[in-house]
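Late entry, evening session. Most of the bench is empty. Finally got around to the prediction I had been postponing all week. Sequence below, unchanged from the version circulated by S.P.
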Amino acid sequence: MKAVGATAVYPIDLVKTRMQNQRTGSYIGELMYRNSWDCCKKVIRHEGFIGLYRGLVPQLMGVAPEKAIKLTVNDLVRDKFMDRNGNLPLYGEIVAGGCAGGSQVIFTNPLEIVKIRLQVAGEIASASKISAISVVKDLGLFGLYKGAKACFLRDVPFSAIYFPAYAHTKVKLADENGYNHPLSLLAAGAIAGVPAASLVTPADVIKTRLQVCLNSTVFLILE
C-alpha cells in the first residue's frame, strides 16, 4: 500500500524538487518554471508523461525500510515514556516522533540524493540518460550522505510534529465506539501533515539544493 501511495503522489514530488531547485538572481538568469502547473506541463511536453516518474525506483526501494524503521523507533521510544497506566505525556510523543524521523536518515539519505539527481536530470539534455547506477558511482559512499544534516533538519521536526498530531487527530475523528473509518484515518493523516510539511519546507529546500549541487562550497557561497 505504501508503494501504491508513493507512486500516486510521485509526480507531485518531482515537481516540488524542480521548483525548489530553481534559483533567482543575476547569476542564475530567467526562471525555467513560472509555477508548479507550468513545471508539470513542461515536463510532459519535453520528457513525456513518463518524465513525471523519473527517479521513481529509488523512491520505491526506500518506502518499506523507511516506514519500518520510523514506526519501530517511534513505538520503542513511546514505550519508554509511558507510565504504569499506559499514559503518554505530550513531550514523550514529540521526542518519540523526533527520534523516529532522525533514525531513518542513515538509510534514506542515499536513496533521496539519487532520486533527486534523477528528478532534475531531465532539465539538462545531455543528462537525460543518467541512471541510478551512474549517480552512485559518481558520488561514492560518502557522497551519498551529502545534505544529511539538512535531511536531519527536515525529518526530525517533521516527525516530531506529525506523529503526535496524527495520534490526537485520530482520536478526535473516531466514532462513539472509538473506531476510525478509513476516511477518518485519511483525514487525520492529511490534517497532521499540513503543519508538519509547511514548517519544514525551508529545510527541504536547503536539502534539495545541496544534494543537486555538484560543488557544495561554491553553492553555499553564492546562496
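Two things to note before I forget:
The CA atoms of residues 69 and 156 lie 14 Å apart.
Residues 2-222 form a domain with the Mitochondrial carrier fold fold (CATH 1.50.40.10).
Will write this up properly tomorrow.
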